[in-house]
Amino acid sequence: MTETVHYDREGQIAVLTVDNPPVNALGHAVRRDLVAAIDRFEADDAEIAVLVGSVKLFLGGADVSEFGKPPRDPWLPEVVSRIERASKPVVAAIHGAALGGGMEVALGCHYRVALEGAKLGFPEVKLGILPGAGGTQRTPRLTGTDAALELVTTGAPVDATRAKVAGLVDRMVEGDDPRIAGLAYAGELLEQGAPARPVCDMPAPEAPARDWETWDDELKRAYPGEVAQQKAARAVRAACEMSFADGLAEERRLFRELMETRQREALVHAFFLERQVSKLPELKGMEPRSVDAVGIVGGGTMGTGIATAVLLSGLPATLVEQSVEAAEAARLAVEKNLDGAVRRGKLSEEVRARIDLTTTTDYEALSEADVVIEAVFESMDVKRQVFDMLDRVMKDGAILATNTSYLDVNKIAAVTRRPADVIGLHFFSPAHVMKLLEVVVADETDPEVVATAFALAKKLNKIAVRSGVCDGFIGNRLLSHYRAAATEMVLQGASPYRIDAALEGFGFAMGPFRVADLAGLDIGHATRARKGPRRGEVNPDWDDRLNEMGRLGRKTGRGYYIYDEESPKGRLDPEVTEIVEGVRSDRGVRAREFGDSEIVERYLTAMVNEAARVVGEGIAKRPLDVDAVLLFGYGFPRWRGGPMMYADHVGLATIRERVERYARDNPDFWQIAPLLADLADNEKQFKDLN
Ligand code: 3HC
Ligand code: NAI
Fold first, then answer.
1. Mind listing the pLDDT tens digit for each residue in 593-642?
2. C-alpha separations of 683 from 68, 367, 609 in Å
């Protein structure tokens, strides 16, 4: 049995060191060893104890991988109470981070010192739960109720300075050694004869300054559909209105309720997804090439966003445009993005001053770049010219990447003499903000190039997902398909506004027609013009009409919605309804009613069915890759875990039955994906393929 908590002495001080890499999660062994260490301290003649973490942080919280499994004694609340009930004082010395259950252990200690820069907080709500080891009861006793509500309902950590001001810690000190800081503080306490000081014995907190109903309303508004935030507030309320023991029991009850929810399951899935997407067998042991300089070709919407992301990561960027004017415009656009980053506190003035951006019209400037990302017009001819040029000027071993949305990366690679070094890096707009990056692996792409793309993504703070080559890769291919399902519903009688509202009610940040307005209706129009409708897809004539009228979405103040000073977020446009009705009557369609649940079901069923094809064809390696794309690039609600998890929850037999039912209207469009049929036949789930 390995020991995860080491015990040693410095004079009269016992030092308990938690050692459970990588993040000192409070799994069963750590809980067991913590209790044993406290027992040893009680039996020992040491007069005070210091609890520290040996890895890069104090304690990272409960072990999330144990969620959903049968609990094993001792539970975390018991561990915290055991520390708190020690007869001699225990000091928590916090460095790096004390999160969730880790913060709760710190609150079980009698005194707390934090090193400058440490992050303290309760991220539980981001996992669909609430602090379940006394955090909601002890925090308000130290910080007051409003500050505690803020901490547990937002899930956002505070730094040591703010933690000190809030009363979460007694002391904030400089330095980088928590053991030294803990020993110093314990020495002082020893000298003062400070006693054990359990938080549970402190008076119950007062009601919040804003009343409970106001808090409740605000949480409902801020986190529509989610349940954890409101329950976390209820647990804090229990701290104000009940005895400590009863409050703890109430917290436990609410915690257990949340543990059983699908939201919890979905949010934990999302937490692990972020990390699993980059774990690909083909990348195991593969050393990425070094990337010290990045080039970008094309300084439009995407090129300037990508350049900004590169610069924010600390790498130098060289951007090539067609003309001096365009290069200058690109420089200004990047500068504007960087100013915004400074304003939002994402970039310090000092680092901004050191940023290394070159804009030019000379391709030779890319000769030393390790990676060049092309973001010119979406035209195969233009891309071929650019790749031919890049092939000539770039050094050996450099990577040639394209940000194409739909074009065939194999054909682009074929222009060069080094197809093994060509890859797709598909960013999302705005590229310096959106988390998702699709790494599009072409037939001849070298695995080392793939590994380098994943490493670069990490450096750029992106979540990279591997995709194979197909029309639209994972994300845009699904988008085309579920958009087509929405179009079909509009033709049959649902208004675009009703569809948007139903999907926003499901939890999407924006419905598909709002998204279309944001992206620009000309983009969808151009894509359709290039590809033509696919099998069974309804041609949305109303889109063409809107286009002809110059209504391109937000950028022209009118698309599906009207955008003006009165309604910057858009209001309904009766003219659109008229145009749609005109198209229905031209086609002899009698409109029928659509309820919100039918809209959501049809839309998601289309998404899941196409996703099953994408996985079945090997374009996405695993269902989890699809979930990640939709969560981090397409506004799918995180607390629903992504379309594949949604499908598993609904049941694949039900999804298949829906496809069959919708097929009666439009058999060409609603063809069941073989993988979906196969899983449903065998009573399997998508998650079995992860
Ligand atoms: N449980 C289990 N595994 C965890 C974990 C946790 N709480 N936190 C991190 N890990 C794992 C990650 O999955 C990853 O595993 P991998 O290497 O196999 O992919 C590894 O630890 C390293 O994690 P990161 O890559 O995220 O490391 P970083 O250094 O970037 O970040 C961190 C460290 C800030 C601690 C970050 O991991 C984090 O935010 N973790 C989650 C913290 C959290 O939510 N804690 C609350 C848990 S709920 C709780 O405590 C309930 C209680 O109230 C009862
Ligand atoms: P854009 O039209 O805003 O910018 C393209 C830029 O490329 C223009 O500034 C143009 O002057 C420049 N350019 C054209 N030919 C060039 C050449 N030979 N050398 C140097 N510069 C050249 O287009 P946008 O939206 O930035 O798209 C670029 C690429 O990114 C396209 O392939 C598009 O499909 C893809 N993309 C677009 C997304 C979006 O939301 N706009 C999202 C993801 C990918």
1. 999 999 999 999 999 999 999 999 999 999 999 999 999 999 999 999 99
2. 21, 55, 16
Q: Would you report the helix, strand and coil content of the chain in percent, each value rounded to 5?
A: 50, 10, 35
Q: Which of 296, 297, 302 for mutating ligand 2's site (highest number of atoms within 8 Å of CB)?
A: 302
Task: Name 137's Cβ contacts closer than 8 Å, sequence gap at least 6.
Answer: 200, 235, 238, 239, 244, 247, 248, 251
Ligand 2 close to Cβ of residue 359 (< 6 A): no
CA of 226 to the centre of ligand 1 (A): 22
Q: Ligand 2 centre and the CA of 424: distance in Å?
A: 14
Place of tokens 């104890």: 49
User: Residues 243-262: what's their mean pLDDT?
Assistant: 97
Is 90 exceeded by the pLDDT of residue 532? Answer: no
Task: Write phi, then psi, for 539 (nearest 5 degrees).
Answer: -80, 120
CA-closest candidate to residue 132, choices 269, 272, 259: 259
Q: Whose CA is nearest to atom 29 of ligand 1?
A: 23
DSSP 537: P
320 lines ligand 2 (CB under 6 A): yes
How far is 48 from 103, CA to CA, in rounded Å? 20
Torsion sign (Cα): 447, 450, 452, 458: negative
104 is catalytic: yes
Find the angle CA(513)-CA(518)-CA(519) to the nearest 5 degrees: 95
Q: For ligand 1, atom 28, which residue shows the shortest CA distance?
A: 23
Active site residue 218: no
Confidence band of 1 (pLDDT split at 50, 70, 90): low
Query: Which residues have C-beta within 8 Å of that of residue 150, sequence separation ≥ 6?
Result: none
> Rg (Cα) of the chain, in Å, rounded?
28
For 130-197, list the strands marked E by DSSP.
158-159, 171-173
Task: Choose which residue among 4, 18, 23 to substitute to test ligand 1 binding: the one with the highest number of ligand atoms within 8 A of its C-beta.
Answer: 23
Please state the rounded mean pLDDT for residues 546-556.
91
- Unique residue bearing structure tokens 């009666």: 664
Model pLDDT for residues 482-501, shown as the tens digit of each residue:
999 999 999 999 999 999 99
pLDDT at 526 (0 to 100): 74
pLDDT at 521: 85
Calpha distance 11→23 (Å, rounded): 29
Q: Cβ < 6 Å from ligand 1: which residues? A: 22-23, 25, 60-65, 76, 97, 99-101, 104, 123-124, 127, 131-133, 135, 275
Which pTM was predicted? 0.95
Q: Which residue has the tokens 């998601």?
A: 604
Q: What's the number of CA atoms in the CB half-sphere (13 Å) around residue 443?
A: 7
Contacts of 252 by beta carbon, 8 Å cutoff, 6+ apart? 77, 132
Q: What's the rounded Cα separation, in Å, for the pair 659 and 144?
A: 53
Q: Is 674 helix (H, G, I), strand (E, B) or coil?
A: helix
